[in-house]
Every structure is written in C-alpha cells, then in structure tokens.
Specification:
Helix content is 34%, strand content 11%. Strands 2-1-5-3-4 form a five-stranded mixed beta sheet, with helices on both faces. A hairpin with a 2-residue loop joins β3 and β4. The chain is globular.
Length: 246
Amino acid sequence: MTEAGKSTGCTARKRTWRAVVAAHGTNPPDQVASGIPPTGTHPADARHSRIALRVNGSDHVLDVDHRATLLDALRERLDLTGSKKGCDHGQCGACTVLVDGRRANSCLLLAVAQDGAEVTTVEGLADDDGSLHPLQEAFLEHDAFQCGYCTPGQLCSALGVLREAAAGHPSHVTDPAVAASTGPVELSAEEIRERLSGNLCRCGAYNGIVDAVSDVCARSAPAKSTVPSTTPGPAPSPVPRPDVIV
C-alpha cells in the first residue's frame, strides 16, 4: 500500500471511530445486552482495548483482548458464525472476510488492529429482504459446494476476486501485457483458479466454484450483438464491471 493509501485508510478509520463514539456515548444496545461494559467503565487493563467495528453495515464497540483474532471477535462476540475456523493458520481460507473491501484471512488478523475497519462477512452478502447475492445464487445453481464448510470463505473471496479484476489488479498468471495496462483484467478460468487458490475445498467442488464465478462475471458484462453494423454508431458505453453487483 502506498503512503497515500495508508494515510487515507487511517483517516477513514478515525472518522469511523469518531462517528461511532459520537453516536454511542455508551455501547450500542446490543452490546450492553451482551454484558459488555459501557464506554469508560472498563477497568484499566493492559491486555484489553476498546475498538469500533462496522460489520455488515452495523456499528459495534467491543472490548477485546489484545490476543484475540478478528475471527474470534466475529464468531464469539458478535455471533457471526458464518466465517469458519478451519486450519487457524491462514492456509485454508475458510475464515475469509472483506476488511475495508479487501479479502483477508480473519484468523490471522488481531482484532485490536482493526479498530475503525469496515468488515463484511458472508452474513452481509444478502440483501436486507433476504435476496441472495448473485454469487450465492450462482453457487447454488452450479452446485459449487458440497459439505459447505468452505463456502462462506469462498463467497467472500470470490467477491474480492471480482473487485480486484475489475480494478485491474494482475495475478500471477495475468499476461504481462495486460498487467502493464490500467484496464480491468478478464477473468478466465485460469485467472479464477489462480486467484481463488488460497481457498481450499476438501470436497473438491472446484469446478462448480469456477463455473459460478465465471457465470456471475459473464452476467455483469453487456450482451453482444450478433448482427454486424454497417454504419457508424454512437461510441460504446463503458463496460459494466463486476463490482456493480455488490
């Protein structure tokens, strides 16, 4: 990350923190109900810190042990158990969530270091009315999961893949000529496999997962006309990118 990016991220987190504190002089009602002491009453403790997180669109203030991971905070403090603890070593990807829009292994992140961050878990992908995210629908349609243990991490990771490719971020298999450009990267099957290689599926449902991500990527692209035009037309509209499906 560039120094400018670090500065922007830090400033955004501070704004989030101030907004949450201003809105909640004490902890939000759900945190009070769970027994978390209100702001300012936690005894001095060198092993705990108070942090603010925005998770799936809701603000939370938590007193966390400095040794607690983000995954543990999500599962044990916020009861968001969709993200799974698989290997607990950042090798299987079952715990993948989006932190400030970028995918990350939550088992490797200390919760205290995420103060002010915006986190999206698999519970936050569907709309408030229960409508599934296009990726969730595609996973169902293509039978992209079997036991389903890896599915929450796969879904969050796939959403990150679509955004990264749309932003032009190259992968290890991206053609150097394409990587040198500033445009979006086309998601071939090889690109999808490479970009999702950090998420393991013990059941071997990889083909269905690749098909589902390819399907969502194709649906976000404009339909191509099969009739060749003989007269000059208006300039083409910008190509919609997968990030519009969030």
